[in-house]
Amino acid sequence: GESVGLHLPTLSVQEGDNSIINCAYSNSASDYFIWYKQESGKGPQFIIDIRSNMDKRQGQRVTVLLNKTVKHLSLQIAATQPGDSAVYFCAENGQAGTALIFGKGTTLSVSS
Amino acid sequence: DAGVTQSPTHLIKTRGQHVTLRCSPISGHKSVSWYQQVLGQGPQFIFQYYEKEERGRGNFPDRFSARQFPNYSSELNVNALLLGDSALYLCASSLGQTGNTEAFFGQGTRLTVV
Fold it and tell me: Which residue of chain A is at minimal alpha-carbon distance from B31?
């Protein structure tokens, strides 16, 4: 599968590959994180969340990993499909838990 | 069940004018947050309202204001519009305070200031 060690603005994969999208968050006090998918012209779509008392959480075809030591979050998408093509954002809670602070998005392009 | 609904979907305004954007949260959700998303960037936090009180405010000028009604719907108001206010304005709905529970976004209002 395709993976990136540091945040990259774009990621191109073949259909059926596994994708890994990385995110570095800013605040060591953040204790709640969400991954969103945003398609062109639409609002962000909730994918999966994780709290800081967990290292890993799995959903349908997606897995989120949290490494609090290095303040790193990743989203793994299994068997990537063309419909997964979108911009992916990670978000951490900020401002005493009243806001979501979004990271830089990664544009995932899936070719068939 | 209806998701988060925002109106209008698109809007064109002239510099100096005022605009009001509206949001209806998911039924049963008590928190509404507003975000501004400029093209090519992630959403930026503007306000959070929970149980009809302002619970958080982002780094936006006083030209931006909001309120939440008894039915938990919300309005975002922007006065003295500038060209730089052109953006997608997103509303997020959550059961508890945004930042501690799942937050779901509407489709947004695309504001263009000319």
Answer: A98
